[in-house]
Amino acid sequence: xxxxxxxxxxxxxxxxxxxxxxxxxxxxxxxxxxxxxxxxxxxxxxxxxxxxxxxxxxxxxxxxxxxxxxxxxxxxxxxxxxxxxxxxxxxxxxxxxxxxxxxxxxxxxxxxxxxxxxxxxxxxxxxxxxxxxxxxxxxxxxxxxxxxxxxxxxxxxxxxxxxxxxxxxxxxxxxxxxxxxxxxxxxxxxxxxxxxxxxxxxxxxxxxxxxxxxxxxxxxxxxxxxxxxxxxxxxxxxxxxxxxxxxxxxxxxxxxxxxxxxxxxxxxxxxxxxxxxxxxxxxxxxxxxxxxxxxxxxxxxxxxxxxxxxxxxxxxxxxxxxxxxxxxxxxxxxxxxxxxxxxxxxxxxxxxxxxxxxxxxxx
Length: 363
Description:
The protein is α+β, with helices and mostly antiparallel strands. The protein contains 9 helices and 12 strands.
């Protein structure tokens, strides 16, 4: 009986070959796609790690402009630190009627955390703020003078230059020296609005958090790109899960068809007195056997095809930095999906056929 069992499980046929080919194609797609998605994640992570991910901002209250922190708090911090003082003001361009309300800030950055060469200077206007004035018909140049007003306080500053984005400093800000800022807002006398720490300042960050500060991580262009890729990656995983369901159904159907053609074998086994559980177990083993062979071939082919696709992009002149990643996830996930589907695809039809044939065969 055991020899018959083994021969039935390992029996070769054209249908079995095509079943293996179908399972291999399904596994190849899943394995190749997962390896590319994981390669995208690793490439993005590696690129992001080479750049500064952003500074840590500590402030009080609900907004940066209303936050007030005593300057002596900086004395308790051990690592490098920068300080930003911010207030809101109405900004007029002398000689025109243009008026814009925006943030006016003063920056102290002795350790170069913000990486902004104009941090300690005054009269530097962000490009977005400058564009707002141009839209109001007040083009700016280095001779333009600005009148800053907040309540009954006012002061003047001359435009030194316009700076772009790409740093922690917002391109909607106007940067001035601290005395100019104090002329607008005396609440900043001896106070600052935001403490800026470099990434990785865990000890200082925890100290500030224990002191009741709000902690936020700023987002650089690289970090924004990184998070955007991770969002796309999440969508790709969702597509893969849906595809896995389809692959499961295809594998189940393929094994069901294969077992459907074996009803004569099931009838013969029943006629010679083989227990129903043994018949079902025999076809479960066959389904597992075909699934393992097909998924093993498909997994190997999936990695090969993924690497060929990436290599082919360089031939047609498309630069790709994604390298497919072979991992336990890309290997085991498709194999487990296909194996379970194969076992179910063999067990359920063989069980149903066995019960039906049992009624036909005299006991």
